[in-house]
Automatic annotation (TrEMBL), chains A, B:
Pfam families: RuvC. Binds 2 Mg(2+) ion per subunit. It catalyses: Endonucleolytic cleavage at a junction such as a reciprocal single-stranded crossover between two homologous DNA duplexes (Holliday junction). GO terms for biological process: DNA recombination; DNA repair; SOS response. Its EC number is 3.1.21.10. One of its GO terms (molecular function) is crossover junction DNA endonuclease activity. This is Crossover junction endodeoxyribonuclease RuvC. The active site is at D7, E67, D139. Its main location: cytoplasm.
Amino acid sequence: MLILGLDPGLGTTGWGIVRAEGNRLRHVANGKLVTDTKAPLPRRLAHLDAMLAALIADHAPDAAAVEEVFVNSNAQSTLKLGQARGVVLCAAARSGIDVGEYKPSTIKKAVVGTGAAEKAQVHAMVARLLPGVKIDGPDAGDALAVAICHAHHLASARRMF
Amino acid sequence: MLILGLDPGLGTTGWGIVRAEGNRLRHVANGKLVTDTKAPLPRRLAHLDAMLAALIADHAPDAAAVEEVFVNSNAQSTLKLGQARGVVLCAAARSGIDVGEYKPSTIKKAVVGTGAAEKAQVHAMVARLLPGVKIDGPDAGDALAVAICHAHHLASARRMF
């Protein structure tokens, strides 16, 4: 099963794909989708959408997952993030893929074992869980973390039902 | 020239289309796009996206416009609105249409003549400026108002250059 993790952002959206087979995880690919800060907002969103559509068409993931948003005290940042996040969720759902959402603490717990882990620990554990991975920056690392979290939850759900 | 005004919202997105010929305005159509409050967020966004794509394909507008967001003090509402707004801006831009953004006060000034107008005045003036229009609720009324505002600004720009 191919799982696509996404870390939405208007400037940079991180993505990471893992293959889950039973309890085994394998890294497939990761990277970031970057939009031109000088382009008008609607163009940037459409560019992000086109890159997501191409990514999903290339890899044909079976499931997707994103982090639940930590709502910022800066309302303008929240709006900006919301707009990018809307496009990301929409692009996944439009391709017929279900999208899991996880709290930051749930992702940290799944990857590191504690919900209070530091970002650096999360990325170090991602690298350990996916031998040979070369992580394309922090956004791609976050995306791989949410993909791993989703893989664990899908595996637990299968054991339960 | 066909101008599509949009009033984005996750639950209800209002839309309105006017035809601008020189200084004359004519109502073409208006309505609302409603998503199922019981569906998961990504599905709702993909449904909104599909309805927008169909609307744009049906009417082939030349330009689109939305209101600049009044950022809410409630961060969760801002995020929700941002997600819907991202899908709306993206759908327009993906169709190759430029999207104008206007402050609420600019829209009121264009429609009523004062930036401090009440909502009810705006809708009453929309009905007066577009004889025979039947407005499909307040969101469609807001969408027609931003379409009228965009028509005025495009007409002024033509006179200036």
